[in-house]
Amino acid sequence: MDFELTAEQRQIRAAAREFAEAELGDRIAPYDARHEFPWPIVRKLAPLGFLGVLVPEEYGGAGLDHVSYALVVEELNRGDASVGITMWAHNSLATNHIALFGSPEQKRRWLPRLATGEVLGAWGLTEPGSGSDAAALRTRAAPCDGGWVLDGSKAFITNASVGGLAVVMARTEPEKAGARGISAFVVEKDTPGFAAGRPYRKLGLHASDTAELVLEGVRVPADHLLGGRGEGFVQAMQVLEGGRIAMAAMAVGIAQAALDQSVRYMKQRTAFGKTLAEFNGLQGMIADVATDVEVARLLTLRAAWLKDAGRPARHAAAMAKLFASEAAMRAATRAVQIHGGAGYITEFPVERIFRDAKLTEIGEGTSEVQRLVIAREILQLA
Ligand SMILES: Cc1cc2nc3c(=O)[nH]c(=O)nc-3n(C[C@H](O)[C@H](O)[C@H](O)COP(=O)(O)OP(=O)(O)OC[C@H]3O[C@@H](n4cnc5c(N)ncnc54)[C@H](O)[C@@H]3O)c2cc1C
After folding, report:
1. Which residue intervals of the chain bear CATH 1.20.140.10?
2. How far is CA 125 from CA 105, 232, 356, 369, in A?
3. Rounded to an integer, what distance in angstroms lies between the CA atom of residue 238 and that of residue 264?
4. Where are the CATH 1.10.540.10 domain residues in the chain?
5. 82 lines ligand 1 (CB under 6 A)
6. Nearest 5°: phi and psi at 139?
7. What percent of the chain is helix, strand and coil (3-state, nearest 5)?
8. What architecture is domain 234-378?
């Protein structure tokens, strides 16, 4: 499907596909098995511009549009979702938050370091007591001489222990309940009192880094506040809108990988004197998966295109994320089924794809939350 891609967009997609074929897939499997972050491979993303895809060129980034970004995210996740989520959290969340809401001085200070891969970025909204209900967060930022002191903790943070800085949402006006009174801060890794916990042992994405972030009396200067005081929650929701489109692209890549593996296996495996490709029941599964992938990709590119056009994209982003993540899970489930017993063992990539796919229905707002966003807009509820 070419969705009227420009020559530049096709070129960037080809570059991402080439990288994924050369560096990801089977090469990540040993890292996944060891639950190890694949630094040597992640470092190779920077020279290709994949750690600063949306960052303007004047700040050292590739300065590409959201459609191009979605294409890169899809191709990298088709290769491997651990590397995919690492670059997604770095680009969509941490880097993009600074690019959207930082002052020119803040952008000059942090964006080139992020875009060139000198540091990876993390983004902390979720807390042990607040995920879907993000506005209930309790991390506190109290004013002090020349800046702020942060106390609290963040849960399930991608790149928490490998990141060189984090954008963290904290409550600056504790007397204001809910979304009001939350602000966003940049916290650099070596700041005293700021630490990552041990990476969680996860169902999937074993080669990605997810950990708790702990903030104990963390002092940051006043110029680490992004935008105005009390604007952090609104900023975070805008960051999440773009993030959801990219997570939809992540799901498309995972679904495509499941389809690729299914097709390959059906052509080589024989039973009853035929290849699996000749069985009607399995052909039906492949047709359903291929259709799912195509619809998911169209919804995702449409949402990205709306964003590039400066048009409202919240509804389209939620639809793309909802459909693509559930399509990825369906595709992965069928891929395991098509592989039979081989699908259940770690020697074949579909076992990893199946575990990785589940995250897309949970991160960046669960499927239930996406349904809520879509329904509220249709029913015109607040
Ligand atoms: C691998 C991984 C990486 C992550 N990376 C990051 C990151 O980098 N930064 C970050 O800030 N967060 C991150 N997260 C957190 C993620 O965004 C949250 O886990 C997610 O938003 C869900 O929140 P929760 O886990 O608290 O679940 P809960 O909010 O407790 O939800 C539990 C269940 O209740 C349902 N539910 C909740 N509210 C409603 C409602 N109103 N209506 C219907 N159903 C509802 C949910 O859909 C879910 O099924 C990550 C999570 C994982 C697993």
Report:
1. 234-378
2. 24, 10, 22, 16
3. 40
4. 7-120
5. no
6. -55, 135
7. 55, 15, 30
8. Up-down Bundle (1.20)
This prediction has a pTM of 0.97
What whole-number distance in Å separates Cα of residue 220 and Cα of residue 196? 17
**CATH number of the 122-229 domain:** 2.40.110.10
Q: Give CA–CA dist 235/374, Å, rounded.
A: 20
143 phi, psi to nearest 5 deg: -65, 145
Q: Which atom of ligand 1 is nearest to the CA of 125?
A: 11
- Determine whether the shortest distance from the Cβ of 123 to ligand 1 is under 6 A: yes
**Bridge partners, 218 (sequence order):** 150
Q: What is the CATH number of domain 7-120?
A: 1.10.540.10
Q: Is the CB of 369 under 6 A from ligand 1?
A: yes
Could you report the per-residue pLDDT of 69-126, keeping only the tens digit for each? 999 999 999 999 999 999 999 999 999 999 999 999 999 999 999 999 999 999 999 9
Cα separation, 28 vs 37, whole angstroms:
9
